Records
---
Amino acid sequence: MIVEIGHYALILGLVLALVQSVMPFWGARTGDVGLMRVADVTAPVQCAFLALSFAALTYAYVVSDFSVLNVVANSHSEKPMLFKVTGVWGNHEGSMLLWVLILAVFGAGIAFFGGNLPRPLKANVLSVQAWVTVAFLLFIVLTSNPFERVLTPPAEGDDLNPILQDIGLAIHPPLLYLGYVGLSISFSFAIAALIEGRLDAAWARWVRPWTLAAWVFLTLGISMGSYWAYYELGWGGWWFWDPVENASFMPWLAATALLHSAIVMEKREALKVWTVLLAIIAFSLSLLGTFLVRSGVLTSVHAFATDPERGLFILLILMVFIGGAFALFALRASELRQGGMFAPVSREGALVVNNLFLSVATATVLLGTLYPLLLEALTGDKISVGPPFFNMTFGPLMIPLLLAVPFGPVLAWKRGNLVQAMERLWWAGAASLVAVASIFALFGIDAWIKAIAIGVAVWLMLGAIAEPLGRVKAFSSPLKDTARRLINLPRSAWGTTVAHFGVGVMLLGIVGVSAFEEEVITTLNPGETASIAGYEFTFEGMRPNTGENYSEVVARYTVREDGLVLTVMEPSRRVYPARNFPTTEAAFHTIGFSQLYISPGDPTDSGGMVVRFYHKPLVTLIWIGTIIMSAGGVLSLMDRRLRVGAPMRARKAKATAIPKGLEPAE
């Protein structure tokens, strides 16, 4: 009965989305306030119905209801409770239900917290949001029903893919979807602005916090996925340029460009057309990622293998929304008035440079991801575009961008002074040159790539700190005054500093593990020892172990440094009987920001084991950096200026000019 209630709630959510997609939009066209207010009710109620539907599916997993086909295909009665719950979104149908639930949550957020929006704009935004919801609810109902029953329920389910039975996969998909789907709000704001033919600084201020929230979630989601692949797959890598990884990385790049472009639009009412275009592109890339993961065109540990019917349905959604959005943009862009002018050397100019490199980088990743698919579709030839291509194209684009990042915050709006900016950053530049010289001294002239990359990382971190220190006159005023000014800095300024500092920390981790990693592949018998980076690993033997729904062989390694026992590491090889599926469970030990990493291989007839040992310098800084970046985004969201809409003075000044019924929705 609960499953039927969930299915019924899903249909009711679709009906409400249909109402929300039409009535508020028509009300905005005709000036009917009553119709516009319909969205204020339908959005949260639709969200409640979809939450009920998701809860019903979760209940079916928790109680192992094998009369539901989705539960049969992705669960098992012996599976730990945590993974019964995460199994809800560890499959195509359940993850799509989570997708539309998050879509509805963002729509309800606009309904509740959009009281400062002009009512026609709010109505149009919620209508566009409902158009997307309708499309994906139809997709679920017609091709991916998670509540489909089995006529003869089996006694046991097929179990969830074992590599998905991990805490990282309990966190990664929801975070990623909050980022993916959150960009739909930016898209809805862009389409609503094009429909009305009006863009101003207030629009940028309204759209920026929603985009920033989506960016934070997407950053954390990508980071969690990277860390999961690092420790769960046993490959020892943190990024593989997998097409499905790229599918989430491209919207992140576009959203990063959108955030910086929206700042220019908010402050100077410039880059209006470009900002709207980026909002469309960011969500379009999210839709493209959804298609790549669910159409069956990609083979990946991250992808859902689905039938062609589903792929064609999502392709149709892509064509309608992306094609329709770009068509509307082409019709309306010429009507949008451009904003203020600015000199090339200015904060606006620095942000334009930022956008230029981010956009080219996004196009590069898009080309490398889609070219093999297009070539196979057109000619039947299969090629592989892997890390060498992306490293040679993406990396060089990032170096000049990262070198320019510290200049942006220290330049003035409209017209900046490059000499003054360099004076504020001289000590950061000097420190980075010292870092470069130190690497040359330690590793020789052949290490020039390592030296430059580490120098850029130091430049980024210290350059980020230089901006607030310069604003508070840290080196030219009493310490007490400096501390007071630092405390009173806007949180958005702190957010920028922290986020840029996090980029430097992440880059330092990337360089450290990429340039200085050591690897040893060997076969050890019990009692034998292998050495790497000054650490000795002694193989003590293997023992069997049994978990809740798996059996494993655990290898034991004693790690010594300078003859003293440092730790004991126990990687394992597991087998999940329900699917007869083997997995590798790597072991790692953290030392400072570095890690020792053991990936076990196949056992030998003599009782030994093939094994990979890694020493990964500074590898944890990769994920620490992304957390710092996300913290910077959260700090910016806490700024009062991002929690309000148009400036109060401007709203009061325009109040007398707004017809009755079209005032802000508060």
Note: The longest helix spans residues 347-379.
---
Amino acid sequence: MHAYRSHTCAALTTAQVGDTVRLSGWVHRVRDHGGILFIDLRDHYGMTQVLCDPDSPVFAQVEKVRAEWCIRIDGVVKARDAALVNPKIPTGEVEVFIRDIEVLGAAKELPLMVFGDQEYPEETRLRYRFLDLRRDVMQRNMILRSDVVSSIRKRMWDGGFKEFQTPIITASSPEGARDFLVPSRLHPGKFYALPQAPQQFKQLLMVSGFDKYFQIAPCFRDEDPRADRSPTDFYQLDMEMSFVEQQDVFDTIEPVIRGVFEEFGAGASVDQDWPQISYTDSALWYGTDKPDLRNPIKMQVVSDHFRGSGFAIFANLLEHEGNQVRAIPAPGGGSRKFCDRMNKFAQEQGLPGMGYIFWRDGENGSEAAGPLAKNIGPERTEAIRQQLGLNVGDAAFFLAGKPAEFEGVAGRARTVIGEELALTEQNRFAFAWIVDFPMYEKDETTGKVDFSHNPFSMPQGGVDALSGDPLGVLGYQYDLACNGYELVSGAIRNHKPEIMFKAFELAGYGQDEVRKRFGGMVNAFQYGAPPHGGCAAGIDRIVMLLANTANIREVILFPMNQRAEDLMMNAPSDPMAEQLMELGLRVIPQN
């Protein structure tokens, strides 16, 4: 017999009744039923009930075992009584009578329990991640992740893509976040960077004549943490194609993403029609560039109804160029209690509040109520109701000013309204392509124009588009949103050196600086670069959605905490003096 097991803890059935078997695993829990000890023995594959009565030669040893001890047992398989069958597990028709036991690894008192659904602080879970990962939900999440990656790989290979690995130690590349720098021992004072993405290398692969590339790529960014983002590293499906336009990329990646969600979505519906929404429209309608289309609420501009109205705050704002009034329809939200609650929400988000109107039954049909309705009068409120398509029992909320200053709050309010009024459809994956991103943005404080997205993107209209106002230039850039999260980001690339130099010039980068920072790409593009484009899909976020969790750390094996610390491995840690000397570095103490 094998030294540790003849079967896994999920393999035994009534076919093995009477056999002597050997199992190894962890003690999930121990139950004492009138002197008979029952142990749920767990391994990676499942659970088997084993038991020991006082007649067993190892009863005294079995009495000593505790939760999460790792043990090996030998025993005889017996059928359970019909009344004691457990249909919830594959081995529920049998049990094993212990005849021999070996403790493979005893466990100290546990800082967190593996059995049960107790909640523990995240810091505890991450410090003892090796225990946390033993829990059933975490085992399922990590198996799901592995299966999703396997499925993605197969789909990409079937689509004619070849998998290549790009360097991990490389030069700095602007990807919108801070680099992790790596000091060079052989070149004192100089630094490598961990790649924020394989951006430059995958474009160089296209110049090298490889038509379709992909990899499951590790990416490193020194970012502020969020629930849906790792602060240090993440994995993405990275892909690039030659001789393609924007729609070709969409047509290629859509079946891959859709297939994965259909395969692992646990029966949730997967939208087949993925609309293409401009960045401008997405910001207007949803208050974000990653809208949740399960929520049917679509915001609208209602400025004309407030110009010259009796509501002086909005009327005065509209006298200044660039200001707008936008409405958030709230079907079913027509009560003062709900409206007051949403007004308080806006105040908690840092705004003075949200104006509102709600409609109720009146003597002559619908009657508008609320402070705004009294100030602007019945004709204007009726026109607003008709524009928004609302009825008795509905409400609308209003925000005014420069859209950039309130869009984010409006988007969050739309989300809350959709959830509280049960408008947001559950058990569905709703996708949308966000297109026509602006190439540039202006810092309101400094007035400096810089790239707002990927700097290597092709501007719509080519070099001619770069001769006017930079803030009016759109790029062939696109994101794929799903249920309020950005899953995919990509672009058609700028493969012409003259257009690249002009694009960087508008952002304040001279030719010498571009050649210095991106010399490899600039040089390569002078030797017959093909038109090319691609995208990257976040593996962690895909699995997060499929696992039905809002915290990305639930689907990463060994994540950092919110302060970018690995509590289990004690990272980051102080370097040794010898290491600093080798690298020619000195740490300056921080106050």
Note: The mean pLDDT is 94.
---
Amino acid sequence: MKTDIEIAQEAKMLPIKEVAEAYGIGEDDLELYGKYKAKLTDELWNQVKNREDGKLILVTAINPTPAGEGKTTTSIGLADAFTRLGKKTMLALREPSLGPCFGIKGGAAGGGYAQVVPMEDLNLHFTGDFHAITSANNLLAALLDNHIQQGNALQIDTRQILWKRCMDMNDRALRNIVVGLGAKADGVVREDHFVITVASEIMAILCLANDMQDLKERLGRIIVAYNYAGEPVTAAQLNAVGAMAALLKDAIKPNLIQTLEHTGALVHGGPFANIAHGCNSVRATKTALKLADVVVTEAGFGADLGAEKFLDIKCRMAGLKPDAVVLVATVRALKYNGGVPKTELGAENLEALRKGIVNLEKHIENIQKYGVPVVVTLNSFLTDTEAEYAFIRDFCEERGCEFALSEVWAKGGEGGEALAGKVLETLENKESSYHPIYPDEMSLKEKIQTVAAEIYGADGVAYAPAASRALARIEEMGFGNLPVCMAKTQYSLSDDQNKLGRPAGFTINVRDVYVSAGAGFVVVLTGAIMTMPGLPKKPAADGIDVDENGKITGLF
């Protein structure tokens, strides 16, 4: 059996100019990065922005196993299936982070015969967007420390600095550091921290900004610290906005690549859904909706994270209205949620399936609370059995959800036609009445309580003293009307990754809260969630290599 990277490397890609032509995009509207990658110009958006939108399909999932459940693979295969059925279709996906590529989860180019290509480029440096975001983030950090060193005219309290440095790699040793050691000329000694680039507020800003003007306004609102009087100090006050925007001027433009079957894919931005808002850029999604009849997008991790943030943050800010949600599950993950060890997931176990399917049930209920029709799909594995499929199909249909098997990993678009047919049937027969789960006017604690109770199924929320103080301060500053971005483990509906299935009788523990004023949301840290992940004992990097001909192996 061929590996994902072997399939991708053997693919016959079309020149990206030919892929673009199928969507009416001329060469003048492309900024080429070689033969197979391009950015879309600002001029293109101005040409298409008044067109009618296509249909928007969100792909999300149940709570995953550590290896993920195939949301991206399903998204890509579904888009190819729509193309095969004669629909003008485009993908809107996130870019992969180097952290998971070299850590445990691997890349984010899909898998098997449902991939976007060039796969190695996408999973590594791509068009440099993440490097630009990292540079802009760290420029702001450098300007902040330099301002303090050069006399501190803004009276910044070095004990109340919020802005963190970042890098796009899992490096736990950088979570908590000390900077400024050495001579007087080497800076002011203080505690500092790193986050992974995908958790940076600049990543969120890039993904939520409509254009350069909006980007600059958001960058200016970033709160980097408080002064001795307890007042916020912003990036605009440090005169950092222009230089940061200059670093991001190309990164803000969506990237166009293709699937193995030559469906266009706008792959842009990459915030994690467990610690950020987990959606691709607003610009990419909106552009795709103007260029295609059907747009397939995905949001990270389970529906309790990515889908909740897509529906409560991205759609609210961007005025998007999804027409249907595809909820991805696997037999393996359902058995995992039913208590089966990872080593035994390949064996038929209907009792464990019965226990674990309550996780799927909760996610179905959650999506329906937003007024959006749900289609459930099973990402098939060779170890699955017909009895397991039949049990899950009956379960879904009893709850008013369409159901289809997805075989896109093995068959590409052909393996997604049954799912595409169910989605089209849903679009024709079930109207979406999308609405967020809470209004802007609610207090921040009420918003947190709503997500905890309605989406996670928690009995209540417990706040550390620091979190309660932070919430009060944020509301005093006038940010109480912002949505909340919950940072939580992806492996459980609770904030404890060991509570699988559909836990009950638990409390969500909020340990800290901070405002991302530029992004436009309030980040709520729960449980033991980390904004700088670490590498596992045996990282994926152990198996990655490149030969004398430049051919990469081990990347997945």
Note: The first helix runs from residue 4 to 9.
---
Amino acid sequence: MGKVGITDVALRDAHQSLFATRMLTADMIPVGSRMDQAGFWSVETWGGATYDTCIRFLNEDPWDRLQQLKAVMPNTPQQMLLRGQNLLGYRHYADDVVEAFVACAARHGVDVFRIFDALNDPRNLETSIRAVKKAGKHAQATISYATSPVHTLDAYVGLAAEFKAMGADSLCIKDMAGLLKPYDAFTLVTTLKKIVGLPVQLHTHATTGMSVGTLLKGIEAGADRIDTAISSLAMGTSHSPTETMVEILCGTEYDTGLDLKVLAELAACFRTVRRKYRQFESSFLGADTRILTAQVPGGMLSNLENQLREQKAEDKLDAVLDEVAVVQRDFGYPPLVTPTSQIVGTQALFNVLFGRYSRLTAESRDLLAGRYGRTPAEPDPKLVRQALVELKLDAPVTRRPADEIPNELGRIEDELKHKLQAAHVPVEDVLTYAMFPQVALQFFGRRHKGPVTFEAPEPAAKPAAAGGSGRFKVAVNGKTYSVARKAGKEGGTAVLEVDGLAYEVAVEPAAGESTPSAPTATAASAASEKVLAPMPGDVLRLTCEEGERVQAGATLLVMEAMKMQLEVKCRAAGTVTFKVQAGTAVKADQVLAIVG
């Protein structure tokens, strides 16, 4: 092992940043054995987005991926990114869920747990660090780096000292947006090494063009390890190239000891793999200095781009990036890393599309109310009051948020058994359901069909008429899907089989046709209100009954849009007639309900 250790992030953060985390396990396994021979200090293979994408889009079991990678890389520590008390989801979990998840991940092959909290609230790392140490694994506590009036050198050093007292084995400076300047990195690493004394690992993205310089100055200051990505998956919103850093350090006192010939072979393999995922590529392939102001990490940038494309509002990207800075300030300067990057980014998007803070997501309310922990600065008092009113709370949460959550693993297991009508469910499935309840149930129902495949597009054909059946090709954002249309169902829905996976979706009649089971336009009075979907998403749950009389401003249903929960309300009082059910995928401006 050389003087400076290398963690290669090709199997997690690199493809998450470059092409929406879509790399299949089948494309990782053939390269894994060669990666095992490279001499990396660790290889990052797992984290929230990989787990989520496996069950949401790839039809893969993330626990199986972990075991398969460990089997082909037995000599290289596997590393995962863990969101502290959030684990891999978008809420805080009870301590018993955190403990069970860490223990299960350790059994499946995770050796290094990089643990962070999006607010840098050390209370949210306590249970994770304790669980990792109990499992006999490496606990790497993380500083989520941001620049603001409250993110100071003294604050970072104080945070690191708390991590050391908790039992952390090492520290990571996580610069998720490429904001850490080279000379600031030198000062930060020097100070941490001198005062705290733990090994330091430096993680920075190439988004703003500073990453190579930042890594080099960090190494000169005493950084023990750095994160890089093999060159064919490097730069843009990803990381500095592994080979570049190895060559820069070769023959110096910081020599990594890695063989460039082996790395070149890995780069060639991943270059071939990457071609399969062109349809998911971000357009941000160079340096984007707008991020120095917006502070948007690479994965968030590509997500915002995709979300605006879905809204047919690509021209509003600059406005959303400007609004991100406003929301981050108003929310108490949280570092922009999952889940706060999604919370702030989605709220900024809503502000641009619907008016500033006219719609707070459920997660925005929880953040303002203290349910995620203590923000680096006090959030805007008016927004806090708005959130408390909407949550029906008297005051914000001030103690450790997990102290408000009773043990819940047993309840979650019983709930899953009931939903699956099963006497026994493996703990892996219980934990998957805990992380992503709606998506997990869909995944369990289709898991037996195996992973999706990505193939060359085929010529598109005219789809079958509404209410009929047939097979056809549909091109969406440059990707062609094989679709089998089943017969229409009552309520204006149909079953589509997309690349072998079944989905229930809302349909509209083609021109000149009607859907017999759907109510006619004359069924509602002239004064009826059509409640429309504000954006594409999935209906999570209905919050009132069919035929119920509701008041103006009542919440009719909750949608999941861009991984955030959004309440959909009515403007007028009346009786509710729903046009969708829980689990329905909807598009923007689709009629969700009629109130009249």
Note: The chain has a mean pLDDT of 87.
